[in-house]
Amino acid sequence: MLQCLLHRSRRRKGEDIAPDDCASFFIFSRDQANSSVSQPVCIPHNEHQIHSSTHSSASCLQDYRTYDSSSEIQDYTCSSSFGPKSFECPSIQITSISPSCHQDIGTFENAENNRPERDYMDRPLRDHLCLHLEPSFREPSLSPSPGSSISSRSWISDASSCESLSHIYDDLDSELNEAAARFTLGSPLTSPSGSPREHPVEKTWHVCSVSPSSRQSPCHSPRNSITDENWLSPRPSSKPPSRPTSPCGKRRHSSADIFYSGLVSPHYSPATSPGPSPRGSITEDSWLNASPHPVPSLSLYQCWQETAIPLKTRKTSEDHSARLAGKTELNTEDLACLSPTVDMPTDESACSQHPVIQDSSTDQFLSVPSHFTWNKHKSGHTPVFRTSSLPPLDWALPSRYGQYELKVDVQPKTHHRAHYETEGSRGAVKAVTGNHPIVKLTGYTEKPLNLQMFIGTADDRYVRPHAFYQVHRITGKTVATASQEIVITNTKVLEIPLLPENNMTASIDCAGILKLRNSDIELRKGETDIGRKNTRVRLVFRVHIPQTSGKVLSLQAASVPIECSQRSAQELPQVEKYSINSCSVNGGLELVITGSNFMPDSKVIFLEKGQDGCTHWEAEGKTVFKKCQMNNIVVEIPAYHNKTIAADVQVQFYVCNGKRKRSQSQRFNYTPVLLKQENLEDGDLQEATAVSLAKGRGISDLRMIHTSLLFQDQRSICKTLKSSSPPGVECPTQPTFTSSLKHEIPQISKIQEPCTSSSPSTADPETMENYPVSIYSSPQKQSMPYQCFSPDIPVLPSSSLTAMPHTGQPSSHTHDCRLRGISLSPTITHPRQNSASSHPTDMSLGIKAELVDHDINFQTKDLEDITLDDVAEIIRRDMSH
DNA sequence: CAACTGGAAATATCG
DNA sequence: CGCGATATTTCCAGT
Question: Where is it chiefly localized (predicted)?
Fold first, then answer.
């Protein structure tokens, strides 16, 4: 076994060892026993560096600070940048990193099976320092995780949400050009995955300085991986306990409930987050202030200890030692974090010149998006970025922009049991068809591109990297798709080539899902999400398309939610979609819920919660048993308790199989009956809408009109639809309200969606279709042609519930999916370059009506609107600013 | 034998 | 603090 020595250095001359000053070292060792092992050891280099990851994404790999490696990490480490051969000798490369310009690639997998990727790894190296690790550094036997699992413990830094500041940097022509090249793959043959070769990129290993004394290498085994606890009280280790000790400061279950309810999200929602959120700007300051500055003499680890301790950990720090006693093995291994970074040639020159905007100390333990970020950048952000600044993974991006569209043509199965690090791989995510998910980029066929994939959240908020799951690269004979792993701010990202010869389509047969232990992640500083019952994920895909301007267009598409826990998959009811998402306060309409694990005694509970998260009202929908089937439940919507509401009231409902076997809550609206009885004619309705819009009324007006739309005589709507759309013709890309309406309200066309839109998907007309999808997917409006939609839904007119072919046919799904009803969807008509300037007056709603299936018998359940709420939400947010 | 899988025991957390 | 119900992790055995 090779050993690497840790090394730390200061980047800045004469400066004290502020956390950010610490040089970052990536230590990797090669475990010969395992052939594919190198133990990455990473210590935060410096804050700048850490931040840099977010600063520049394109050229700069976002870094992750600690990386617990199981065998996988090493994989990439070795092979990707250097190739296995280059690793004959374990080495540590010390790299001075341009603070602002490194996107950190954590690891590249060395997979033996990815020959084509070899070239990919041939990246210019620089400033490498090879060091040996001590034999004890890694215990091969303790590495249960065969795959490329990364121990959760290594994911100490919560960098996932770091916001890139690079977008504010000045352009550098050379940078742009070079960076642009980086996003494409040169020759598919030689570098299917975006070879560095084509990219003027350097991959370097960063060695985080570590206190050599007593850190256990996370690499040892998942169980031994370093956690914040370890940091707090490193001690010589003996043997890891058979089971992880329980983490301190865990959130309570009740919190989880709230979280899931969607009313309160500990994350990304500073406005609603009651508690301190490390990711929120709120805590940043406090952290900064509270954290003692590391003494110059302190090792980086020490620095980390001093400053990077999660609040909750600190609060219960007393417990740590006790727990650690039995839990960790501490030897010479230090925090392992392998993070090869890809540097642009221009990085040093260009990036180093960039002012370091973020406070390094903040960065050290708070890779937390600022409030600003949350509100302005998280979602609906322009997909156009400077080449030097790819969007952070937690930025919501549209799936379509102009001629380009990234789409999940074949969705994965809604259940996939993730594997733990202590387990072997559980294989790649499969599609319903038995094959694998397929992703396609349309509108671009010029050069090979890299398709990035990571595991994202599937809650009711925008898609972001999932803290408790990571993508796991699957290799083997059954895998035909080349791929490689990188790590971007704590998130493993799989890069898969999109080749013109394949019609820019990729079959995702190389992606499994790794589950990280809740206790590990929850202790991570800045982490506010809870793991308990947070078992749904999505596959998130991104592609960065170089533009002639030198900038890059980034698109993102996410899959349907995937339930990853064994138990949940077997027991919990899961709502995939439902027929209608609103009803008058009188109730009475039938709601068809499609999903899985529905039982004969399943109930549908409607409830309303207040700001405080408390349930104010609850009612059970009356099940229409005769219409229920295995994959769907039909209930009669209960009347709302207050019949006199003046505006829509948002409630929730969930399917319940028992006391705690509930599906995730779904959104539902109760609407006033005011306009309902008026039974407006098409013209009236349109006129009303037009007038309202023309007068620039607020959301409430829009909502009222929307309501009226929803409840007007359905036949009228049907008529309207027919008049505006030829039979059987859908025009997803053609935003139209009604022909007459368009004439009457020309303003609509001028409307622009606020960049702060929380519904990035709004840029994707196709996502505005059909039934409301489960709540966790709706906000993003990812294209969701539900493949799993049961073909045998008798309750609805056959035409309205079209079984989705589950063939691997790209692009067939979405179009096969008939659009029903009317859909008002905000569309992004122009990319917003300056999100901050958004203002209600600037924005407009591209309102369209997608009409399909004119022959459908328009029953209430067939009508639906899932977008206006989003519009309202968007505007509300924007106005609140 | 390694990679998957399915099942379930062991251990944790919640109320 | 104990207990039952749940949820999470780890193990085991069969393909």
Answer: cytoplasm
Check pLDDT > 60 for residue A355.
no
> pLDDT averaged over chain A?
51
Using the CB atom, is residue A423 less than 7 Å from strand C? yes
Distance CA A386, CA A166 (A): 8
Q: Which nucleotide has its C1' atom closest to residue A422's CA?
A: C10
Nucleotides of B under 7 A from a protein CB: 2-8, 11-15
Q: Tell me the CA–C1' distance in angstroms for A538 and B11.
A: 28
Total residue count of chain A as it appears in this document: 881
Q: What is the pLDDT of residue A68?
A: 34
For strand A582-584 and strand A666-671, is the pairing parallel, antiparallel, or unpaired? parallel
Write the burial class of residue A85 (CB in 10 Å: 0-12 exposed, 13-18 middle, 19+ buried): exposed
Angle at which helices A699-711 and A868-880 cross, to 10°: 170
Give every CB contact of residue A418 below 8 A, 6+ residues apart in sequence.
Answer: A426, A469, A512, A513, A514, A515, A537, A564, A565
Query: Which nucleotide shows the minimum CA-to-C1' distance to residue A417?
Result: B5
All domains of chain A, ordered by start, with CATH?
Answer: 384-563 (2.60.40.340), 574-671 (2.60.40.10)
Q: Report the C-alpha gap between A36 and A642 in whole angstroms.
A: 64
pLDDT (0 to 100) of residue A417 = 95
Find how far residue A38's CA is from the centre of its chain: 28
Residues 6+ apart with CB under 8 A from A130: A4, A89, A90, A91, A92, A93
C1' of C3 to CA of A658 (Å): 20
Strand partners, A649: A670
Gap from A419 CA to B4 C1', Å: 11
pLDDT, tens digit (0-9, with 9 covering 90-100), for A446-496: 999 999 999 999 988 889 999 999 999 998 888 899 899 999 988 999 999
C-alpha to C-alpha distance for A61 and A162, rounded to whole angstroms:
12
CA pair distance A452, A450, nearest whole angstrom = 6
